[in-house]
Amino acid sequence: MQQTTDAIVIGGGIIGLSIALELRWRGLSVQVLTKDSSTAATYAAAGMLAPQAEEIPPGAMLDLCLWSRSLYPDWTAKIAACTGLDSGYWPCGILAPRQRLTNHPDWQDRDRLSQYLPQASLGPAIVGGYWFPQDGQVDNRALFRSLQAAVHQAGIPVIEGISIDDLSRSRLDQGLITNQGTFSAAQYILATGAWTQELLPIPVQPRKGQMLALQAPPSALPLQTVLFAEDVYIVPRRDGRIIVGATSENVGFLPHNTKSGIQGLHERALHLCPTLAPYPIGEQWWGFRPSTPDEMPILGPSSQANLILATGHYRNGILLAPATAQLIADSICNKPTPLLPHFSYQRFPATTQPDRPPLAKV
Ligand code: GLY
Question: Which of 20, 37, 310, 313 reaches 20 to 30 Å from 288, CA-CA?
């Protein structure tokens, strides 16, 4: 058996790395085990920090999202101070254009909305919308690189290529059996995103998102704010990439982009903001969001005493990384976590154990 640590995080995406780093910052010894961190939803995301633009209804989920958004400035600054790497955190505000008038008190008409876009114009169908100055974005790929560097610098081993056995049939008090030997820790944290149901019978399903990036000259970026419409969003990066997302497809782990997926996104983006028409598509990709039936993450204790869940972040994994790390670390350090019970796996009816081969992907 390998040397015992305080905690083992299973999963090397943004949630797993954020938790590992937070635990290390609090003085615990940690290891990260991952099958293939390059497949994590982290890389595929757009990086919007958008609790308001996403229209998350009032309640524990909105509280968690707003808290996490408020942690972003200090959290990314701390990671940058450790690594010297910039994560592209940009509190640029989010504009939410709409095609139908409402009588909401925060409604702004088309002319007011256009003032937030001095170098771009909205499509003719837009009649007005909302401005969320506290929402923003982070460059999720840059953040991922920064987190990987911070984890490395903190001396946290990250072991790739790990396959592990079905956890519901495992005795974790005897260690975690993997294809690379048995690992032992006082606490295990499961942060396996869309792949969670391969390891435990909790309701996390992949929801595919296709995306594309237009390429504009960084010196003449036409947008300085995110646009978040009902059928498409547009996220300008300071390096000139303009991310357009995303489809939402219930197709399991079916890979690849489709012509209709990418064409549809491109058309909707130009309909929303015709200014973007001259820019070529520089990249297209896809990823798998970890969705849950109520679109809230699953956090906290599991049916096994020393296994903690941190998964199912669906559309908000990037946003929720710092708050998830705080909550999970607080619970491991026996601090009060009043928000945690709202995210228990027990809010769902028990699911049946799916058939699966003995070794599963992490
Ligand atoms: N957070 C946006 C998306 O999942 O498409």
Answer: 20
Whether the CB of 246 sits within 6 Å of ligand 1:
yes
pTM: 0.95
- Ligand 1 atom closest to the Cα of residue 319 is 1
Q: In whole angstroms, give the CA distance from residue 279 to residue 148.
A: 32
pLDDT(357) > 70: no
Higher pLDDT, 132 or 37: 132
Q: Can you read off the two tokens belonging to residue 24?
A: 């290390």
Q: Whose CA is nearest to atom 1 of ligand 1?
A: 315
318 in ligand 1 pocket by Cβ < 6 Å? Answer: no
**Closest ligand 1 atom, residue 48 Cα:** 1
Token readout for 104 is: 């909401």
For the chain, how many residues are written?
A: 362
pLDDT digits (tens, 9 = 90+) for 29-45: 999 999 998 888 888 99
Specify the residue with its C-alpha closest to ligand 1, atom 2: 315
At 179-231, the pLDDT tens digits run 999 999 999 999 999 999 999 999 999 999 999 999 999 999 999 999 999 99
C-alpha 344/C-alpha 308 separation (Å) is: 10
Nearest residue CA, atom 3 of ligand 1?
315
